[in-house]
C-alpha cells in the first residue's frame, strides 16, 4: 500500500532524513519506532504533504505519490492523527467530524463512522466535554468520513491515556484494519506496539536501520537497535541515603480533584505517586506547587509553613521547589521562544546565575549557560537560539528539566516526566534523577507507568479516588499490589 524509498530531507545544515525506507502492506498495522529526533515526525510530515522531500520516491497503492499540500495528501487517502489533538473544543462532536466537509459529509455518515469504531457519544456534545479517550476516538472517526483513507498515521495516540482508556483506542485501531485501512503506529511504549502491530521499522539518526516481524525480536533487542547501543540496565542502581525532611504536606485538600494528601519528602529521596487516570494525582501536585487553590491543609518547605496555602507558585520557587508540568506544550515551555530563553527564564534576576546586573542580561552568557545543559543532558539542538517548538518531544522535556537545574532547586515535583518520549531519553532522565538524588535533591514523581516507579523510586504512595495512601518502600511493592491499591481493592 505504501512505499517510501531513500527519503532525504535537510533543514539548513541539519540532515533530518538521510536515506529512509518504509513499506507498509495493505491491511497492516506497522510500527514506526525510534528515539525522539530520529526522523519519524519529519518522515510522516512528508507523507502528509506538509513538507517536501529533497530526494527519494513515494508510491501509494502502486502509483507515484508526490503531494503538494496536506489537502492533496488527504484527498489521495493519507490521514494523520497527531499526538496533540486537533479538535475544535467549542464545536460539537458532529461539527468536528464534518469540519471542512460539510457539503459532502452527512450526519448519517458521522453516525456510521462512530458505529464502525464503537464510539457512542452525543453528536451535539461539545468536544471539550468528552474524556480524553473519547476525544481520541472522535479524531479516529474523522478519518472514516469523506475521502476514503488508505493510510492512517497515528502519532502517540495513547500518550495522555490510562491503560483502560488506551484499550478502547486499540479496539478502534483494529477495527480500522478490518475496514481495510493500512496503519502506521508511532509509540514509545513497546507493550502497546506489541498489542496492535505485526511488523516494525526502526529509524535512528535519520536513517532506517531495520525492518522485521515483532515476533522475531525481544523488547531489549528493539531498545538496543533504537538507541544504537547496548542496554545494560534501564534503571540506574540506587543507593538510598535519605536525609532531613525538606517537604511536609499535611491533609492537603483541593477545591476539586483530591480530598486529602499527606507525605514527607527527604533529601536524597525519590518518592513516587501512582494511581489511575482521574485519581487526583495531577490535581494534588498542582495544588502543592500553588497552581490551583486548596480548601484545607498545610505545606511546609524547610522552615516555611503555609496553612491552606494560597496559589502562589513564585513562593515555592523562591524556597527551592520547582515543578515539571505533565503538559509541556501548554505549560512546561514557551514554545515560540528560544531554548536559551526557556532555560534561563526562572533564573533571570536571580544573581549571579542570570549573568547580568540591574535587569540587563548578556546574550552571550545565556547562550553559554544553555550550551552547558546541552552537554549534560545530551540535548539535540542546532544552537541555544533555536525555537523550542522545533525540538522533538524528548529534547523539549530535557529543556524543561534544564530550567529547573539552572535555577538550582532543591525539591523537584515532576508530573509524568517521561510521557511521550523515547526509550533512550527516558534512560537519560532516569540517570539524571538518580544523580540528583545522590547530590541530596528531593524528588517527587507522578507516573502512570508502574514499572517506572518500581525501578526508579525509593518509596511509592498510591492515590485512590482523591485520597493519597501512606508511602511504602518500593521493594515491598509489586505491579499487582499497586494496581490493587489504585483500584481500591487492596
Query: What form results from the Cα inertia axes?
Result: globular
Structural class given helices, strands, pairing?
alpha/beta
Give the termini distance in whole angstroms: 49 Å
> How is the main sheet built?
7 strands, mixed
CATH architectural arrangement of the largest domain: 3-Layer(aba) Sandwich
How many beta strands in the DSSP annotation?
A: 23
Q: Count of helical segments?
A: 17
What is the class of the largest domain in the CATH system? Alpha Beta
CATH domain fold name of the largest domain: Rossmann fold
Roughly what fraction of the amino acids lie in strands?
Answer: 15-25%
The average pLDDT is 86
Radius of gyration: 23 Å
Q: Kindly give the count of domains.
A: 2
Helix content: 25-40%
- What are the low-pLDDT stretches, counting only 5+ consecutive residues below 50? none
The name of the CATH superfamily of the largest domain reads P-loop containing nucleotide triphosphate hydrolases
Characteristics:
Rossmann fold; 17 helices; single chain; seven-stranded mixed sheet; 2 domains; alpha/beta; 490 residues; six-stranded mixed sheet
Q: What is the topology?
A:
Blueprint lengths: L1 E10 L2 E11 L4 E5 L6 H8 L7 E6 L2 E2 L5 H7 L1 E4 L11 H6 L8 H10 L15 H11 L8 E5 L7 H16 L3 E5 L3 H7 L2 E6 L2 E7 L5 H9 L17 E10 L6 E6 L3 E5 L6 H8 L5 E8 L2 E4 L5 H6 L2 E4 L3 H5 L6 H6 L11 E2 L2 E2 L1 H15 L15 H15 L3 E5 L7 H16 L3 E5 L3 H7 L2 E6 L2 E2 L3 E2 L5 H8 L4
Parallel strand pairs: 3-8, 3-9, 6-7, 7-8, 13-20, 13-21, 16-19, 19-20
Antiparallel strand pairs: 1-2, 1-4, 4-5, 9-10, 11-12, 11-14, 14-15, 17-18, 21-22, 21-23
Amino acid at each position: 500500500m505504501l512505499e517510501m524509498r531513500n527519503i532525504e530531507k535537510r533543514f539548513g545544515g541539519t540532515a533530518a532524513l538521510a536515506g529512509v525506507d518504509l513499506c507498509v502492506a495493505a491491511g497492516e498495522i506497522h510500527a514506526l519506532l525510534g528515539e525522539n529526533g530520529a526522523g519519524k515526525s519529519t518522515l510522516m510530515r512528508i507523507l502528509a504533504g506538509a513538507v517536501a522531500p529533497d530526494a527519494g520516491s513515494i508510491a501509494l497503492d502502486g502509483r507515484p505519490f508526490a503531494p503538494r499540500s496536506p489537502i492533496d495528501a488527504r484527498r489521495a487517502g493519507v490521514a494523520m492523527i497527531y499526538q496533540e489533538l486537533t479538535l475544535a473544543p467549542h464545536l460539537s462532536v458532529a461539527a468536528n467530524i464534518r469540519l471542512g466537509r460539510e457539503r459532502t459529509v452527512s450526519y448519517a455518515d458521522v453516525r456510521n463512522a462512530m458505529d464502525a469504531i464503537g464510539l457512542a457519544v452525543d453528536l451535539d456534545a461539545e468536544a471539550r466535554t468528552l474524556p480524553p479517550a473519547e476525544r481520541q476516538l472522535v479524531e479516529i472517526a474523522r478519518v472514516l468520513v469523506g475521502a476514503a483513507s488508505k493510510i492512517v498515521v497515528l502519532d502517540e495516540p495513547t500518550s495522555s491515556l490510562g491503560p483502560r482508556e488506551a484499550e478502547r483506542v486499540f479496539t478502534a485501531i483494529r477495527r480500522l484494519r478490518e475496514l481495510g485501512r493500512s496503519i502506521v503506529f508511532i509509540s514509545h511504549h513497546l507493550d502497546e506496539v506489541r498489542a496492535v502491530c505485526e511488523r516494525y521499522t526502526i529509524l535512528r539518526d535519520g536513517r532506517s536501520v531495520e525492518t522485521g516481524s515483532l515476533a522475531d525480536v525481544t523488547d531489549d533487542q528493539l531498545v538496543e537497535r533504537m538507541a544504537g547501543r547496548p542496554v545494560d540496565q534501564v534503571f540506574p542502581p540506587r543507593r538510598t541515603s535519605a536525609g532531613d525532611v525538606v517537604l511536609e504536606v499535611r491533609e492537603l485538600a483541593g477545591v476539586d480533584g483530591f480530598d486529602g494528601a499527606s507525605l514527607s519528602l527527604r533529601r536524597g529521596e525519590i518518592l513516587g505517586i501512582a494511581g489511575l487516570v482521574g485519581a487526583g494525582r495531577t490535581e494534588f501536585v498542582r495544588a502543592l506547587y500553588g497552581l490551583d487553590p486548596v480548601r484545607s491543609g498545610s505545606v511546609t518547605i524547610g522552615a516555611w509553613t503555609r496553612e491552606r496555602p494560597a496559589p502562589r507558585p513564585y513562593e515555592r520557587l523562591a524556597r527551592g521547589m520547582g515543578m515539571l508540568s505533565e503538559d509541556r506544550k501548554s505549560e512546561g515551555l514557551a514554545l515560540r521562544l528560544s531554548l536559551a530563553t526557556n532555560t534561563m527564564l526562572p533564573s533571570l534576576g536571580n544573581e549571579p546565575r542570570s549573568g547580568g546586573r540591574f535587569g540587563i542580561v548578556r546574550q552571550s552568557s545565556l547562550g553559554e549557560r544553555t550550551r552547558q545543559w546541552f552537554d549534560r543532558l545530551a540535548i539535540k539542538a542546532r544552537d541555544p537560539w533555536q525555537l523550542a517548538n522545533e525540538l522533538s518531544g524528548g529534547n523539549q522535556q530535557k529543556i524543561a528539566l534544564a530550567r529547573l537545574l539552572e535555577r538550582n532547586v532543591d525539591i523537584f515535583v515532576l508530573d509524568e516526566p517521561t510521557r511521550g518520549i523515547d526509550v533512550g531519553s527516558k534512560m537519560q532522565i532516569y540517570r539524571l534523577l538518580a544523580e540528583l538524588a545522590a547530590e541530596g535533591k528531593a524528588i517527587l514523581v507522578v507516573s502512570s507507568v508502574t514499572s517506572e516507579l518500581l525501578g526508579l523510586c525509593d518509596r511509592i504512595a498510591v492515590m485512590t479516588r482523591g485520597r493519597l495512601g501512606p508511602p511504602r518502600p518500593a521493594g515491598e511493592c509489586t505491579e499487582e499490589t499497586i494496581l490493587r491499591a489504585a483500584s481500591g481493592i487492596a
